[in-house]
Amino acid sequence: MTVDQTTRNPMKQLLAVPLILLILVGTTFPATATTHPDSTGLPETSIYQLTSTWTTQDEATVQLKNFRGRPQLIAIVYTHCGYACPMIVQNMKRVLGTLSDPERAQVGRILVTMDPERDTPKRLREFATTHDLDLADWTLLRSTDTDVRELSAVLGVRYQQEASGMFSHSSIITVVDADGVIVHQQPAINRGIQASSDALRQLLNAAPQ
User: Quick one: fold of 10-206?
Assistant: First the structure.
């Protein structure tokens, strides 16, 4: 994935990424995608360029850039989901399970709800308990519908709420590097996990010791 060096609008660059991702889910992107930091020091294609404000399961207020500094495994889910979302979480855990304990400690885990109206911080904590997620390692986020849709567009995740209150949605696991640049995505259901594991391990091996 190359960056047009004549363009210096980070948000324009960032929002163009999903057009590529819709075609290339299941692909690992080269490290050269992280070029051209702006005045913040962030690459133009970093998801941390988004300035939205989020609330965690513990009711802390954060921005995405607060997660800068280590690779992150990210998915968009909702807690009332009966099948796909539990499978997404399970496959994220499977990816992490391929790493050694020291490697796993260097990887963040983020779940974003596409259903902020119903997924309160309390509900997110209950979801974490149900799925045995250690909140020392996992962060669950909610925001406004507008902000969630902005992030989902950047991640190439599509969703739509049905009349029943349930959601039709794509199921994607995303790996971002320490600067928030997408380096790998994979369908989260009925696919192998090795490519995501390899992408994380490559990032960890390349990190300064």
Answer: Glutaredoxin (3.40.30)
